[in-house]
């Protein structure tokens, strides 16, 4: 395991926390995306998209940082597949369809991926 600089260590800690925050956002959306969804639901969705964008940017750095670790690239590819699933959101007309997309596809895929990615990152951020 290569030695990380304090900046790299901090980036990975922030990354790990962001994965949890996105998970919480998805859970909120699952529970609140109804036909009578509260107004903050749209804000949570937008914040989650910003979080996913930040995760994607972190993957560029992680690809370089962990280039010798062959398991990183498949995890990054899996992440992009989850984002592709989520793009279906914009094609759906009703909140019930959006909720079903989250419950049946996006959340299970994200949670499986998050568990795998956090298992990869954990040894690098453990104190």
Which key terms come to mind for this protein?
127 residues, mainly alpha, elongated
Concise account of the structure shown:
The chain is an all-alpha fold and 127 residues long.
What does this structure look like?
This protein is mostly helical and 127 residues long. Helices cover 79% and strands 0% of the residues. The protein has four helices and no strands. The model has no long low-confidence stretch (mean pLDDT 93).
Q: Give the helix tally.
A: 4
**What percent strand?**
under 5%
Describe the sheet with the most strands.
Answer: none
Spans of at least 5 consecutive residues with low confidence: none
Strand element count:
0
String of helices and strands: HHHH
Structural class: mainly alpha
Provide the gyration radius in Å. Answer: 16 Å
* Overall pLDDT confidence: 93
| Portion in helices | over 70%
Question: Could you outline the blueprint of secondary structure elements for this entry?
Answer:
Elements lengths: L5 H27 L7 H26 L6 H16 L7 H31 L2
């Amino acid at each position: 395991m290569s030695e990380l600089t304090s900046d790299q260590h901090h980036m990975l800690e922030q990354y790990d926390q962001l994965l949890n925050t996105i998970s919480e956002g998805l859970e909120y959306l699952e529970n609140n995306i109804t036909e009578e969804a509260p107004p903050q639901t749209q804000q949570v969705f937008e914040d989650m998209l910003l979080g996913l964008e930040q995760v994607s940017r972190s993957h560029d750095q992680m690809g370089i940082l962990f280039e010798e670790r062959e398991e990183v690239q498949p995890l990054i590819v899996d992440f992009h597949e989850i984002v592709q699933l989520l793009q279906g959101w914009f094609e759906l007309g009703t909140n019930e369809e959006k909720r079903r997309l989250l419950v049946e596809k996006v959340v299970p895929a994200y949670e499986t991926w998050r568990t795998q990615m956090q298992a990869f990152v954990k040894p690098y951020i453990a104190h």
